[in-house]
Write a sequence for this structure.
């Protein structure tokens, strides 16, 4: 690490928000990161989701996490969105570009991007 | 895999699955060679498993019958004229359990897969790192060394999670500037 002071500043900024993040009402964004997902391009998708959550200022209401093989390798990269009290949304064949839209329209705007979901994707 | 950094991500995921509390990722690079070594203190593998894992039909996973991670990595090394070694001590045999996977690549080979975006692999790993697991990363290049230590970062963050998006973006920028310096010195 080069600049631990910079990291200390982030701590100061984020300390108050941590409680919110661990609250009950958060949205969970889960990315499949087994060999099949990684080979299909899950890494840039995950990193784009993380970056967009920070950039679009929704890190107090959504968390991004990783899981193993979701079991639908031919649809990788796969991203699942869990919202309290709602049915899960499964996004398939994800790309970093699609990730930007999912954060803007679904996480921030509350409306799933239907055209990227599993029922609407031809493989 | 398109980049060796993706193989690294995959190999380290195995260490995480093995319940490691400390994972060391060491990249040693000269003008001609690259050695990638991943050391963990996870549950390890018995002799039989070690013999089988480099075979693409071996896996302990449930959703697919073949494990691909280690065979992919081994093939990528062998096709450059290098190779892969795997040493493991299972938890059932010793308190000093864990696994060391080391692969040697000849960069001059036309079949050398580029290392690619290591910073991106590290961001992904730190983002998903469980509490109680630490990663140390060192990449020695001809022009300098790039490093990262999650235990050190946690100490500074005191309680703010490593997975905080702002922290991941910080790591990405910090590694980019370390790499720029190491590459400029050459
Ligand atoms: N660092 C490690 N510690 C303990 N066991 C390991 C380690 N690395 C690999 N293994 C064992 O070897 C097996 C094969 O690993 P490999 O990565 O090739 O396939 P996999 O993880 O089973 O599936 P995938 O194709 O998703 O990676 C694993 O299932 C695990 O049992
Ligand atoms: Mg694996």
């Amino acid at each position: 690490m080069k600049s631990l002071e910079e990291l200390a500043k982030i701590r100061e900024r984020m300390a108050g928000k941590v409680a919110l993040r661990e609250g009950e009402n958060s949205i969970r964004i889960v990315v499949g990161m087994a060999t099949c997902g990684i080979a299909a391009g899950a890494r840039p998708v995950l990193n784009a989701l993380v970056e967009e959550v920070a950039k679009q200022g929704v890190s107090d209401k959504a968390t991004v996490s990783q899981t193993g093989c979701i079991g639908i390798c031919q649809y990788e990269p796969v991203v699942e969105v869990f919202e309290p009290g709602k049915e899960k949304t499964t996004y398939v064949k994800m790309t970093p570009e699609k990730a930007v839209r999912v954060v803007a329209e679904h996480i921030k705007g509350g409306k799933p991007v239907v055209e990227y979901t599993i029922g609407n994707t031809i493989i | 895999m398109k980049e060796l950094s993706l193989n690294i991500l995959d190999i380290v995921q195995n260490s995480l699955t093995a319940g490691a509390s400390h994972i060391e990722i060491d990249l040693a690079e000269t003008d001609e060679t690259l050695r990638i070594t991943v050391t963990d203190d996870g549950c390890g593998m018995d002799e039989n498993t070690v013999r089988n894992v480099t075979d693409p039909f071996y896996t302990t996973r449930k959703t697919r019958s073949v494990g691909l991670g280690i065979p992919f990595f081994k093939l990528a090394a062998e096709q450059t004229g290098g190779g892969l070694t795997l040493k493991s001590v299972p938890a059932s045999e010793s308190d000093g359990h864990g696994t060391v996977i080391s692969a040697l690549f000849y960069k001059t080979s036309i079949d050398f897969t580029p290392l690619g975006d290591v910073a991106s692999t590290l961001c992904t790993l730190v983002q998903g790192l469980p509490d109680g697991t630490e990663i140390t990363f060192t990449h020695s290049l001809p022009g300098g060394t790039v490093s990262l230590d999650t235990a050190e970062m946690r100490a500074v963050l005191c309680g703010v999670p490593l997975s905080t998006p702002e922290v991941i973006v910080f790591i990405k920028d910090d590694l980019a500037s370390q790499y720029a310096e190491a590459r400029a010195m050459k």
About this structure: The beta strands of chain A are 27-32, 62-67, 79-82, 89-91. Chain A touches chain B at residues 1-4, 6-8, 10-11, 13-15, 18, 21, 33-36, 38-39, 43-44, 46-47, 50-51, 53-54, 59, 63-66, 68-69, 71, 73 (CB under 8 Å).
